[in-house]
Amino acid sequence: MTDAVKVGFIPFSAAARGVLVVFCDDALKFGPVTGRALGAAAHVVKRAAANRFKGKSGATLDILAPEGLKADRLIVVGTGKAAALKDSEFIRLGGKIAAMISAGTEAVTVVAELPSGTLKAAQAANLAAGIRLRAYRFQRYKTTKKDGDNAPLRAQFSIAVSDVAAARRAFAPQNHVVDGVLMARELVNEPPNVLFPVEFARRASQLRKLGVRVEILDVPAMKKLGMGALLGVSQGSEHDGRVVVMRWNGGKAGEAPVAFVGKGVCFDTGGISIKPSASMEDMKGDMGGAACVVGLMHALAARKAKANVIGAIGLVENMPDGNAQRPGDIVTSMSGQTIEIINTDAEGRLVLADVLWYVAKKHKPKFMVDLATLTGAILVALGVEYAGLFSNNDTLAERLAAAGQETGERVWRMPLGPEYDKQIDSKFADMKNTGGRNGGSITAAQFLQRFVDDTPWAHLDIAGTAMGVPASDLNRSWGSGYGVRLLNQLVADHYEAKR
Ligand code: BES
Ligand code: MN
Ligand code: ZN
What we know:
Elements lengths: L5 E6 L7 E6 L7 H7 L2 H9 L10 E5 L8 E6 L10 H12 L6 E5 L1 E2 L2 E2 L2 H15 L20 E6 L2 H26 L7 H9 L7 E5 L1 H7 L2 H7 L7 E8 L8 E11 L19 H15 L5 E11 L11 E3 L5 E3 L7 H16 L4 E5 L4 H6 L4 E5 L2 H14 L3 E3 L4 H5 L8 E2 L7 H10 L7 E5 L22 H11 L5
Parallel strand pairs: 1-8, 2-4, 2-5, 5-8, 11-12, 11-15, 14-18, 15-19, 16-17
Antiparallel strand pairs: 3-4, 6-7, 9-10, 10-12, 13-14, 16-19
Helix pairs in contact: 3-4, 4-5, 5-9, 8-10, 9-15, 10-14, 12-15
């Protein structure tokens, strides 16, 4: 992983090294430990702050060579009204801290104390998570100019807390979740000549090291199962497709699993309905759903989640060649339902149709959540702030919405209904793979719903959130890793046996 920061915890009593980071509220007040650490420098802060820095939440004040302090640099982070900060907001504050540290800085000490007193273990853990998320850069293919946002952060962050053991305990599972997010980002950022389906499957299979069971379906296996929808997309590529099914059994033996399904189109040219050249390179990220599922499985297995979980991904490349699928073709999906291909660029739903059906029938999960960079239309509807949520189950939808609020990986529910479903009836087959311009994200979801039967199901259209999102407090890389924290939260809140 291109992630060179280290984050650990030290006791308040340890001497601060390198850059010193402290918190103050909007009355420019410090906690007692902070006040002692600053000594005479506390007055410098008040002076420096006189005009612009008001201690608002997330605001920062940067003081070089502060008088009366050994540190060569002091960073003061505002907390606003500290009492009003939710635990989850400390992730963002961690991001703000990492943002202040430039490449080459060696040591950073963060005094984890609010004016009102010491940070709770969960808050300190969130700070650490935010630091790591913000510090990530994808630089594998940068061999010469490593400057600006490309320069690797090599800092060691020490977060000074009152109870080191408690902070470490709180951070351990979160640290695994961060690893999962960075893993998902890494997969999305990788170029498509490197990350084709077989290579993607190989990387997913490394989860075996964590005790995840990984089953890989190759082309003959998929043919045998009758996955004609997925195979039709894949047939125009030199690279064979794969389905990877990962299973983490952390719950009760025999208990039905929860399931996550990801669209893994390693590159989407559009096929014969070829896309325009402008920004086509972005379609290397059309496997963001699958990347999320792999990152999520990593997070859950590494933190030994007490749940039985299936992660299934459909990996293909959508290419135009002499053997490529044509508009007008009719394919038979594993469910037996036939599909008339209208537009070969509506390929994600074809891939998911067979994987959803396979997972529903083979594993009888409590629910399925699929993630897919499915439609450009969801960007038109929701921009890059929310993923589109479609569901046949209100409880599942509400739980996802709540997990979205908690993690900041937000979802917005969109409608489903028989009127929309009609739009994909076909003259020649059971359905067609596009429903016209109107409600494009909805008709795509209707298509998926025809392959889930009665299984409680939710579909997340992450075309707007998985990649190319504006730089934020928690992410500077093109691939966002969207969904890993969201779905980890969903599992933790509702589907894990209590410890
Ligand atoms: N992978 C694209 C959707 C997409 C677009 C993802 C922009 C990320 C950014 C998907 O396979 C696609 O091409 N969808 C078509 C569907 C249409 C042909 C019905 C679209 O959105 O235009
Ligand atoms: Mn497409
Ligand atoms: Zn696509």
